[in-house]
Each structure stands twice: as C-alpha cells, then as structure tokens.
Amino acid sequence: MQISVGNDFGVGVFEINNSFCFNSSYDIFYFKENSTSVFFAPGISFTIRVFSDDNPISRGFIFRDRVIFITNAKTTGTGTLGNSYYQYSEKISETTSISEDELTTIMDFGLGQSYRFKISKRLYLYIDLGVNFTWMDSEDYETESTLNYLGGGIFSDIAFQINFTERLFLELGLNQVTNIFSSQNGKVVMQDMNINTKYEDAGRWDLLSMAFYIQIGLRFDLKKLRGEVYTSTSYNDGEQ
After folding, report:
1. Cα→Cα distances 185→19, 44, 116, 135, 182, Å
2. How far apart are CA 204 and CA 61, in angstroms?
3. Of the candidates 81, 139, 186, 211, which lies 20 to 30 Å from 58 by C-alpha distance?
4. pLDDT tens digits, residue range 161-196?
C-alpha cells in the first residue's frame, strides 16, 4: 500500500447549457444560458494505491481525492431572457479571478484500477483508470448568484514514481477528468432587471479538466504490518 499527498496545477473547460422558466410580475419568463468557461485551478490532492503482489507488472486499486480552487477563468457565450411579449439576448464575455468577490471550489474523488510497471529499482510507471465524482460550488458575492454542481464521469492518470528509499518516493503525474452527466442547481440574480430566481437543470459532457501534479508519498508492506499487529496482539494476550 502507498499513500501520497501533494499539489495539483489544473486547467479545464466547464460548459453551461441551462434553460428554465419562472414567474415574475404575473407573467412567465424563461431564461437560457449557453456559455463556456476556461479556467486555471491549483489545489491539493491525496492518493492511495494498493497492490496484492510485488511483481514487475501488477494490477491494483486506486483511490484519489482532490480539492482545487478556480483562481482565473474566461467565460464566453450568450444569455437570453424573454416572455410572451419580447426576447432579450446578451453576449457573455467576462474574466474573473479569485480576488474579484467570486469563489469557485471543486472537490472530486475517484476510484478504480491501477497498473504498475517497474521500469527499474528507482523508477515505476503507473497507469490508472476509474470512475470519478465531482462537486462544485460557486458564488458571486457581488450579485449573490450561486451554482451547485454534482457530476459523475471517468478519470485517467499516468504517473512516474521516483523512489528515494524503499518507502519514500516522489510522484509526478498527469490526470484527466471527464464528466458524463451532472445535476445543477443554483440562483440567478439580475439586479438591473429585479430578477432573483432559483433553478434546477441537468448537464451532459459539461466538465473537462486536466492537471499536472506532484506528490510525496510513503510505501507500506501490508503483510508485514499485519504480521507485526498479530505478533503484538499475541504477545499482549500472553502477558494477560
């Protein structure tokens, strides 16, 4: 078993294609947004891998967890508002940063299979593939608009481990996440039009991210640990 922790430096694309209706001033309005955001998001990641053997080529299990923060984003697209009498469309083109009263946090975790290739005593190659789940929370403190996002998809990973000792290693890798489906809900606030409404919608293939990461980790021999625990327990039982 091995445990590692480190930093991610990610980029990604998030697409919104939402449409919903709401009541306002005794009339029914509809709102539609079609936009694409390209973002940069650094963060922290945590990985566990477990292998049942020590062969040159092995297959095992991986669990990964990560939290990243969108620090810079460029959004383009179109927003449309209308009712039975008129329709108003406006192009979206804005650049946001974490310092501009807007915070977006992305948390995801994945689990799946890990393949290990021992290139040499000091260098290992890993290829991982599994399912991924993503939670995203975004809030614009100036307008009070919010977005809550829950999605599922797949992740893949390729990494090299440099072994400093039998236990201590440095891992350099590249991971990729593609969300296949999602559930979105939030609040749209247009202060100049006196509109404040909540919404719910679903998405498909709307989040793609890729991140370079660097982690430091430790490797443990589970068989030895089990043996040490068993020996210690037996010894204490004998004393009693």
Report:
1. 11, 26, 40, 12, 10
2. 28
3. 211
4. 999 998 999 999 999 999 999 999 988 887 666 777
